[in-house]
From TrEMBL:
Pfam families to which the protein is assigned, alphabetical: ABATE, zf-CGNR
Signal peptide residues on this chain, from the entry's feature table: none
Protein name: Putative stress-induced transcription regulator
Taxonomic lineage: Bacteria, Bacillati, Actinomycetota, Actinomycetes, Pseudonocardiales
SUPFAM superfamilies associated with the record: Jann2411-like
Every Zinc finger CGNR domain range: 131-173
InterPro entries listed in its UniProt record: ABATE, ABATE_dom_sf, Znf_CGNR
Length: 175
Protein backbone atom coordinates (compact mmCIF):
# COMPACT_ATOMS: atom_id res chain seq x y z
CA UNK A 1 0.00 0.00 0.00
CA UNK A 2 1.10 3.55 -0.65
CA UNK A 3 0.34 7.00 0.57
CA UNK A 4 1.14 9.58 -2.10
CA UNK A 5 4.87 10.01 -2.61
CA UNK A 6 5.19 13.32 -0.74
CA UNK A 7 3.38 11.86 2.28
CA UNK A 8 5.49 8.70 2.14
CA UNK A 9 8.67 10.79 2.02
CA UNK A 10 7.80 13.04 4.93
CA UNK A 11 6.48 10.20 7.07
CA UNK A 12 9.70 8.30 6.39
CA UNK A 13 11.60 11.45 7.40
CA UNK A 14 9.57 11.59 10.63
CA UNK A 15 10.38 7.95 11.43
CA UNK A 16 14.05 8.64 10.76
CA UNK A 17 14.15 11.81 12.89
CA UNK A 18 12.34 10.18 15.81
CA UNK A 19 14.48 7.05 15.75
CA UNK A 20 17.73 9.00 15.49
CA UNK A 21 16.99 11.82 17.91
CA UNK A 22 14.89 10.40 20.73
CA UNK A 23 16.63 8.29 23.40
CA UNK A 24 15.28 4.95 24.58
CA UNK A 25 16.12 1.49 23.30
CA UNK A 26 16.97 0.15 19.90
CA UNK A 27 17.31 -3.48 18.85
CA UNK A 28 17.87 -4.72 22.39
CA UNK A 29 20.27 -2.02 23.53
CA UNK A 30 20.00 1.27 25.34
CA UNK A 31 20.08 4.18 22.89
CA UNK A 32 21.30 7.58 24.01
CA UNK A 33 20.62 9.44 20.74
CA UNK A 34 23.75 11.55 20.98
CA UNK A 35 25.00 11.28 17.41
CA UNK A 36 24.64 14.03 14.83
CA UNK A 37 26.09 12.18 11.86
CA UNK A 38 22.86 11.94 9.91
CA UNK A 39 22.41 15.70 10.10
CA UNK A 40 26.05 16.54 9.38
CA UNK A 41 25.07 19.50 7.21
CA UNK A 42 23.24 21.13 10.15
CA UNK A 43 24.57 22.91 13.22
CA UNK A 44 24.32 21.19 16.64
CA UNK A 45 21.86 23.92 17.70
CA UNK A 46 19.58 23.11 14.77
CA UNK A 47 19.73 19.39 15.54
CA UNK A 48 18.96 20.04 19.22
CA UNK A 49 15.95 22.11 18.21
CA UNK A 50 14.75 19.28 15.98
CA UNK A 51 15.30 16.77 18.79
CA UNK A 52 13.08 18.73 21.16
CA UNK A 53 10.25 18.68 18.63
CA UNK A 54 10.84 15.04 17.63
CA UNK A 55 9.71 13.98 21.11
CA UNK A 56 6.28 15.40 20.28
CA UNK A 57 6.14 13.46 17.03
CA UNK A 58 7.12 10.28 18.88
CA UNK A 59 4.06 10.65 21.11
CA UNK A 60 1.86 10.50 17.99
CA UNK A 61 3.24 7.07 17.06
CA UNK A 62 2.95 5.88 20.67
CA UNK A 63 -0.68 7.02 20.88
CA UNK A 64 -1.68 5.23 17.65
CA UNK A 65 0.17 2.13 18.83
CA UNK A 66 -1.85 2.22 22.10
CA UNK A 67 -5.10 2.61 20.18
CA UNK A 68 -5.44 6.21 21.40
CA UNK A 69 -6.17 7.68 17.97
CA UNK A 70 -8.02 10.66 19.47
CA UNK A 71 -4.89 11.62 21.41
CA UNK A 72 -2.74 11.20 18.29
CA UNK A 73 -5.01 13.50 16.27
CA UNK A 74 -5.20 16.10 19.03
CA UNK A 75 -1.40 16.12 19.29
CA UNK A 76 -0.96 16.51 15.53
CA UNK A 77 -3.48 19.35 15.46
CA UNK A 78 -1.58 21.11 18.24
CA UNK A 79 1.71 20.72 16.35
CA UNK A 80 0.13 21.96 13.08
CA UNK A 81 -1.17 25.04 14.90
CA UNK A 82 1.96 25.75 16.95
CA UNK A 83 4.25 25.36 13.94
CA UNK A 84 1.97 27.35 11.63
CA UNK A 85 1.88 24.50 9.13
CA UNK A 86 0.14 25.95 6.09
CA UNK A 87 0.45 24.99 2.44
CA UNK A 88 2.06 27.47 0.09
CA UNK A 89 3.69 27.15 -3.31
CA UNK A 90 7.32 28.16 -3.53
CA UNK A 91 10.16 28.14 -6.01
CA UNK A 92 13.80 28.29 -4.92
CA UNK A 93 17.25 26.92 -5.68
CA UNK A 94 16.37 26.36 -9.34
CA UNK A 95 13.58 23.90 -8.46
CA UNK A 96 10.15 24.08 -10.12
CA UNK A 97 7.18 25.35 -8.13
CA UNK A 98 6.41 22.96 -5.28
CA UNK A 99 4.33 22.85 -2.15
CA UNK A 100 5.74 23.61 1.30
CA UNK A 101 3.86 23.21 4.57
CA UNK A 102 5.40 25.69 6.98
CA UNK A 103 5.61 29.38 7.73
CA UNK A 104 7.86 30.98 5.05
CA UNK A 105 10.31 32.36 7.64
CA UNK A 106 10.42 29.26 9.88
CA UNK A 107 13.74 27.84 11.08
CA UNK A 108 15.02 24.62 9.51
CA UNK A 109 13.85 22.50 12.47
CA UNK A 110 10.42 24.14 12.62
CA UNK A 111 9.97 23.79 8.82
CA UNK A 112 10.95 20.16 9.02
CA UNK A 113 8.53 19.42 11.88
CA UNK A 114 5.67 21.29 10.19
CA UNK A 115 6.16 19.18 7.04
CA UNK A 116 6.39 15.93 8.98
CA UNK A 117 3.33 16.77 11.08
CA UNK A 118 1.43 17.49 7.85
CA UNK A 119 2.43 14.04 6.56
CA UNK A 120 1.26 12.42 9.80
CA UNK A 121 -2.01 14.36 9.53
CA UNK A 122 -2.59 12.89 6.06
CA UNK A 123 -1.95 9.39 7.45
CA UNK A 124 -4.26 9.94 10.45
CA UNK A 125 -7.01 11.27 8.19
CA UNK A 126 -6.83 8.10 6.10
CA UNK A 127 -8.50 4.69 6.68
CA UNK A 128 -4.93 3.37 7.06
CA UNK A 129 -4.37 5.58 10.12
CA UNK A 130 -3.36 2.63 12.29
CA UNK A 131 -0.20 2.09 10.23
CA UNK A 132 1.94 4.10 12.67
CA UNK A 133 3.56 1.84 15.25
CA UNK A 134 6.20 1.22 17.90
CA UNK A 135 8.44 -1.87 17.77
CA UNK A 136 7.08 -4.76 19.87
CA UNK A 137 10.46 -6.50 20.34
CA UNK A 138 11.94 -6.52 23.86
CA UNK A 139 14.17 -3.54 24.64
CA UNK A 140 13.22 -1.63 21.53
CA UNK A 141 10.98 1.41 21.23
CA UNK A 142 11.84 2.59 17.73
CA UNK A 143 8.87 3.72 15.62
CA UNK A 144 7.83 2.62 12.13
CA UNK A 145 5.23 3.16 9.45
CA UNK A 146 3.71 -0.05 8.18
CA UNK A 147 3.42 -0.04 4.40
CA UNK A 148 2.89 -3.81 4.07
CA UNK A 149 -0.18 -4.86 2.12
CA UNK A 150 -2.10 -6.31 5.07
CA UNK A 151 -0.69 -4.14 7.84
CA UNK A 152 0.95 -6.84 9.93
CA UNK A 153 4.27 -5.17 10.67
CA UNK A 154 5.23 -5.43 14.36
CA UNK A 155 8.93 -4.67 14.40
CA UNK A 156 11.10 -1.67 13.51
CA UNK A 157 13.56 -3.80 11.55
CA UNK A 158 14.41 -7.31 10.44
CA UNK A 159 17.04 -7.24 13.22
CA UNK A 160 14.27 -7.04 15.85
CA UNK A 161 12.11 -9.58 14.00
CA UNK A 162 15.04 -12.02 13.99
CA UNK A 163 15.81 -11.40 17.69
CA UNK A 164 12.23 -12.30 18.62
CA UNK A 165 12.20 -15.36 16.34
CA UNK A 166 15.49 -16.60 17.79
CA UNK A 167 14.27 -16.11 21.37
CA UNK A 168 11.04 -18.03 20.61
CA UNK A 169 13.03 -20.83 18.98
CA UNK A 170 15.36 -21.09 22.01
CA UNK A 171 12.38 -21.08 24.40
CA UNK A 172 10.75 -23.96 22.48
CA UNK A 173 13.91 -26.02 22.54
CA UNK A 174 14.71 -25.42 26.21
CA UNK A 175 11.79 -27.55 27.38
ZN1 LIG B 1 12.90 -2.82 17.14
Amino acid sequence: MNFDSHTSDVVAAAVRAINLLTPGHTRGREYTATGYDDYADRSPEEVEELRAYAMGLRSVFAAVDDGRVDDACTTVNTILRDFQAAPFLTRHDGEPWHLHFHAPDASWARSHIASMATGLAVVLGNPMHDRLGVCTAPACDRVFVDVTRNGTKRFCSTACQNRVKTAAFRARHRD
